[in-house]
Amino acid sequence: MEIRSRLTWGALLAGVAIAGGACSKDGATGPQGSQGATGAMGAPGAMGAKGDKGDMGQMGLPGTNGTDGTTGPMGERGPSGPAIVISDLAQYGLELSAAAGAPVNTSSLTQAQLEQVGRGAYLTNAIGGCNDCHQAFGPAGPEFLAGGTPFPVPGPGNQLVYARNLTPDMATGLRLTEQEFIDSLRTGIDHKVMGTTLQVMPWPVYRWMSTADLKAIYAYLLVIPAVANDAMAMPDVKNQSMPLPFTGVYDTGDSPPTPLPPEDAPDPDYVLRGLAIQPLAPPSGFDTWATDQQALFGRGSYLVNAVAGCNDCHTNPPYNFASSTPFRINTDVYLTGGTVFRVPPPLQPRLHQKRTMSENLIGQNHGFNVSFPVFLATLTQGVHADDPDPTPLGWPMPWMSFRHMTRQDIEAVYTYVRNLTRATGSRDKITAELARACAMTMECGTGERCQQGECLKDTCLSAADCSVCQTCGTSTVTMSQSCNPPASDSPCLTNGI
Ligand code: HEC
Ligand code: HEC
Q1: What would the pLDDT profile of 222-244 be if each residue is shown by its tens digit?
Q2: 334 CB-side CA count, 13 A
Q3: How confident is the model over 291-336, as pLDDT tens digits?
Q4: Alpha carbon nearest to ligand 1 atom 41, residue
Q5: Gap between the Cα atoms of 33 and 72, Å rounded
Q6: 220 C-alpha vs ligand 1 centroid, how far in Å?
Q7: Is the CB of 397 under 6 A from ligand 2?
């Protein structure tokens, strides 16, 4: 069997529409163009377990190398012949999976199944970032979605849970039925540890995905390479908790409870669903926008709020547990950044990063108010593309997944984030630059020194001159103060701003 698609990744990224792009003409394709340049270094591994105190986290695992670059343009079309034809997006998803080291076994799949699996592969590898947490680190290297990485459960109690093995291994892999899988992503119910819910797994985001997209991810997980890895060998330690019933009504944002659009009516790219799960009031004048802009905004909201989970890192804190409805988004500070992340110690020397802070994406003056090309470069190259001399983005921004989004999806995310009502006043947060890790002063910039493993500026005027969780001395003399590292119990380390 042969799978064909007219387009390669390159063409997709160059802005080909993702919807309805099914390739309808038969015909063998000509030789493929030459291989693209090798991809950038892989993203760092998932966060390790938290240590007992201070900055001494226990372990963090190294990342994998980047996938290869995109393939070159396809050659001329050859004479026609029979072929299974799937959409460009599905074909692209299958290519992404193979590039991630998980070639899909397509041998017994029908055209409809291939289409579904390919879409699931795209969601999993380009947006959901499932492998960022579920990757295993076996003796022979990284293993796709095979689980095992420990995560500290947020909140009190030093609880620890382990990412599960999501591969179809008979003994240790994903053993949930399709319905159980959907239930766990929609209600948080943990089918493996009865009487509890999933604690770290971002189901409060994924629950808003369409049933078809959840099924597509499930179908994909059934055909990736099986890896035997007993991620449950170390039992999750967690308190009893109740699953959150899924009622099909969006009640997590500012607007009154909104029923999700019916799933049996057409909703291409889940634009309507995205509009229904938009936590803030619509931008002013939204009704007068051109239809294609409204569609991009809706698609962007779907990707941001149901799949990518930008809120989980770029809103501090992301949820308001005090409200009567569980998991209401903290809409007051939605996407205004300020969450502090401690880079796991083993990753610090490799990334030259010690602490990072998520950016304010929607501040009036201090948000990431850039043009689309700059936004695109930031997400696809993983650098602060708005700086004159772009430096790498801080951990754990999942740009290694996001860079695989189609150009149209990145544009949708941009259209959404860029057009949300700007945050003003105290919500227009000035976020701090990441604190760089160092072993000696030579590794720091001019006018900086290496102290206690991080680069500190020799002089500062105010905290704005300091990196994340460093403080400017309190003496009234300006230009002669130091940015001091905070005490290990600094509230900044856990709370951010
Ligand atoms: C932030 C890290 C993180 C991300 C991202 C993540 N997961 Fe998880 N997931 C976990 C952890 C940890 C667990 C285990 C227990 C818990 O959270 O309490 C888990 C559990 C699960 C389970 C339950 C498995 C079982 O056997 O019962 C499923 C299914 C699952 N994840 C699927 C996914 C899919 C699909 C994605 C991407 C769309 C994803 N996860 C993304 C961390 C993550
Ligand atoms: C797992 C946490 C996490 C998630 C999820 C996440 N981000 Fe980030 N993001 C960060 C962190 C941390 C930084 C700051 C990095 C730094 O200082 O270099 C960042 C930086 C950025 C930047 C760079 C801003 C600049 O000034 O250069 C952009 C743009 C961005 N994120 C957009 C997004 C969008 C859009 C999403 C969802 C599609 C998203 N992020 C999801 C953690 C995250």
Answers
A1: 999 999 999 989 889 888 999 99
A2: 21
A3: 999 999 999 999 999 999 999 999 999 998 776 667 799 999 999 9
A4: 130
A5: 4
A6: 15
A7: yes
